[in-house]
Amino acid sequence: MAGIRQIGAVGKRKPVKKQRQDKWLINKLDGMLASKKRNGMKGKFHASVIGNPCDRYLYLAYNGLLPELPLSARIQRIFDNGSYLEYRMKKYFERMNILIKQEVPCKFENPVISGRIDFILRHPKLNTVLLELKSIKGSLFDELDGPQETHGIQAQVYLHLNKLGINTGYVLYENKDNQELKCFRVEKDDDKFNKILDRCYAIMSLKAPPTECGGEFYCDCRKVRL
């Protein structure tokens, strides 16, 4: 009967006392990872940010007026996690025997636009395609019914800058929460690229930065006072 009483007593356990963290290791990691983020390079546009809707940000980036900003250890871990996603995908593509190249540099001369294509892959019908890889939080992933605008613009730029004659690209998203995937096709479009160039020329012609931010509340242009 003692055993039965003990079984019946399971539901009367005392509350578990919360254990205080020992943060020595976390503090060491954070100290090692924290750094500064370099914002833009004077005299050029980078393909990964050219789709930013904020003209003020692009002006400041192009003219080298964005300061180096603190990069928290948490944000660095997010970046590193994205790098590991690229590493994993490379291994998958190798196993599928479709990987041609990775981290392919490309450049446009006037205006100066530079970037790196994540992957060049073999396609069963299109010969070769380019791929941009993105990780995204679950709430935004669920809303995707096409590539985010800035990512679509980035892919469009690479379709015009690559030297391999590739006319089709893809943006592949991985949900950070559960590793689900979504993939969207992007076709080379001269009209869209010309609009991107026109915007770059307009930014280059400005004598002073726009006064208002056209981006999100976290846009780095808000940290600059001119």
Structure summary:
This protein has about 230 residues and is an alpha/beta fold.
3D architecture notes:
This protein has 226 residues and is α/β, with parallel strands linked by helices. It has one domain: Lambda Exonuclease, Chain A, CATH 3.90.320.10. 37% of the residues lie in helices and 24% in strands. It contains 7 helices and 8 strands, in the order H-H-E-E-H-E-H-E-E-E-H-H-E-E-H. It has helices at 2-8, 24-33, 55-62, 73-96, 138-143, 149-161, 190-205; strands spanning 35-37, 45-46, 69-71, 99-108, 113-123, 127-136, 168-175, 181-187. The protein is globular, with a radius of gyration of 23 Å. The N and C termini lie far apart (81 Å).
Topology, number of strands: 8
What class would the helix/strand composition place it in? alpha/beta
What's the structural domain tally?
A: 1
Q: Label the CATH architecture.
A: Alpha-Beta Complex
Proportion of residues in extended strands = 15-25%
The residue-averaged pLDDT reads 90
Order of helices and strands: HHEEHEHEEEHHEEH
| Unreliable spans | 4-8
Question: What value does the Rg take, in angstroms?
Answer: 23 Å
Query: Which term fits the overall shape?
Result: globular
